[in-house]
Design goal:
Radius of gyration: 14 Å
Strand order of the largest sheet: 1-2-3-4-6-5
Oligomer: single chain
Strand content: 35-45%
Structural class: alpha+beta
Largest sheet: 6 strands, mixed
Distance between the termini: 31 Å
Number of helices: 3
Order of helices and strands: HEEEHEHEE
Mean pLDDT: 89
Shape: globular
C-alpha cells in the first residue's frame, strides 16, 4: 500500500523530507499520534548522503514537531543489527523500552519529553 498509494498510506501522518537543491536526500514519517505519543517510521537517507547528519536532522525535526504539538513521547523500533541507527537514537535521547512488538531481534525505543526540556 505504501508504494502503490503513499498519499493514502500516510494521510494522517507527518512526512518530513530532506532536500539538497532539487534532490530528495532523505525522509522520515512521524505516524499519527495515539495516547499522547507518536511513532517514527520509515527513516530513509540516500546512500550517498549517509554519514553527513541527514538522519539526525530528520529525527530532530520529527522530535521538535511532536514536542511542539504537545505529545509526551515519541517511540520507534529498529532491528538489533542496525547498531549505527541505535547509537544515533541513543545520542538523540531515545532509551530502550519494553517491546510492543513480538518480532525477534527488534529493539523498541522511546524519547520522553517530560522534564527533560524538549527535543
Amino acid at each position: 500500500m505504501e508504494v502503490e498509494d503513499p498519499g493514502t498510506a500516510f494521510a494522517d501522518d507527518v512526512v518530513l523530507v530532506a532536500r539538497r537543491g532539487d534532490a530528495t536526500i532523505g525522509c522520515v514519517v512521524l505516524a499519527a499520534p495515539a495516547e499522547g505519543r507518536a511513532e517514527i517510521k520509515r527513516l530513509w537517507v540516500d546512500p550517498g548522503e549517509r554519514g553527513r547528519g541527514v538522519a539526525g536532522a530528520l529525527v530532530r525535526a520529527a522530535l521538535t514537531r511532536a514536542h511542539t504539538t504537545g505529545l509526551r513521547s515519541v517511540r520507534l523500533s529498529v532491528w538489533r543489527w542496525r547498531t549505527t541507527a541505535i547509537a544515533l537514537y541513543e545520542r538523540l535521547g531515545f532509551a530502550v523500552t519494553e517491546s510492543w512488538d513480538s518480532r525477534d531481534d527488534l529493539v523498541c525505543m522511546e524519547h520522553a519529553f517530560g522534564d527533560r526540556g524538549g527535543a
